[in-house]
Amino acid sequence: MTQFKKTFKKFRLQFPLQVMLLPGLIYMLIFCYIPIYGLLIAFKHYTVMDSFSSAEWVGLENFKIILNDPIFWDAVQNTLGISLLKLAIGFVIPIILAIMIYEVVNMKFKKVIQTITYLPHFLSWIILGGMLISWLSTNGLLNQILTSLNITHNHPNWLLDPDKYWLIAVLSDIWKSSGWGTILYLAAMARIDPNLYEAAKIDGANRLLQIRYITLPGIKNIISLNFLFTISGLLGSNLDQTLVLMNSQNRSKAEVINSYVYKMGVVQGDFSYATAVGLGVSVISLILLLIGNYVTKKLNDGQSIL
């Protein structure tokens, strides 16, 4: 009873803070927890004429269809290909960019660089996609630059070539997200004790050695956390980007799991199949998260980031 009184006393003292949590809790309850009940239709033959309870139970039939669907496996291949390229190329770029911004001494120049790199994040894929479609067209900016440099005189429409789509998707995603991705790293760098850098200078360490032995260890936990989120999202390629940049010519390399689920569920109305795909992806993402957490725990001397 004494413990209950202590807990109630803490709650009463923090009552204004507890009230501030209510909107977030209500939001999560309505949009995150209640919809979990809808996962039942992954095991049913559900149509818009049915309710969740009246739809015919088919067990694992939808999952069997998924396993034998070649279009789905093409989407899995494209998703993994694009996501792994983003991981290999795009994961380190925000770290490098954050270190470069942190090393800038002139504050005005630093603010200009941050503004320029942050700006694409605030533009929707509708805007950025329209820009890319224009730049990569037959008479677009890219072909004009290549022609003026005498690199090539051919004028292909780059987005119509399926073999080049993965690279376009990866580079455009890096362009949009790298600047915004530096925020956490810069915040972590701001917490590093400046005296460590002064001591390193006295010991004769140059800037590269200071980055290696002070800056990077100082942001190690944030790097590990972002790595976990990236690994767990390997099967979740950007739907907005895909819908904007995908066309009939590059569909074979552009179709990803999210766009396939959208097509099957929203466009064709096969809600059970789409839900089954989404449930399977969520389970695999959870497994990847646990594996990533295990790996980072080993690399951080047994300390878990989560």
Count of DSSP strands? 2
Largest sheet: 2 strands, antiparallel
Helix share bin: 55-70%
Which oligomeric state applies? single chain
CATH class of the largest domain: Mainly Alpha
Instruction: Flag low-confidence runs.
Output: none
CATH homologous superfamily of the largest domain?
MetI-like
How would the global form be characterised? globular
The class by helix and strand makeup works out as mainly alpha
Predict the CATH topology of the largest domain.
MetI-like fold
Strand content: under 5%
The tally of helices reads 16
Architecture (CATH level 2) name of the largest domain: Orthogonal Bundle
Main location: membrane
Domain ABC transmembrane type-1: 76-292
Membrane topology: Multi-pass membrane protein
Subcellular location: Cell membrane
Description:
- The chain folds into 2 domains: 1-31; 40-299, MetI-like fold (Orthogonal Bundle).
- 70% of the residues lie in helices and 1% in strands.
- It contains 16 helices and 2 strands.
- It has helices at 2-13, 15-33, 61-67, 70-90, 92-103, 107-118, 125-135, 141-148, 165-190, 194-202, 207-218, 220-232, 239-245, 251-254, 257-267, 271-299, and strands at 44-45, 56-57.
- A two-stranded antiparallel sheet has the order 1-2.
- Helix 4 (70-90) packs across helix 9 and helix 12 (220-232) packs antiparallel against helix 16.
- The longest helix has 29 residues, at 271-299.
Main traits of this protein?
single chain, about 300 residues, mainly alpha, MetI-like fold, 2 domains, two-stranded antiparallel sheet, MetI-like, transmembrane, UgpAE/MalFG_permease, MetI-like_sf, transport
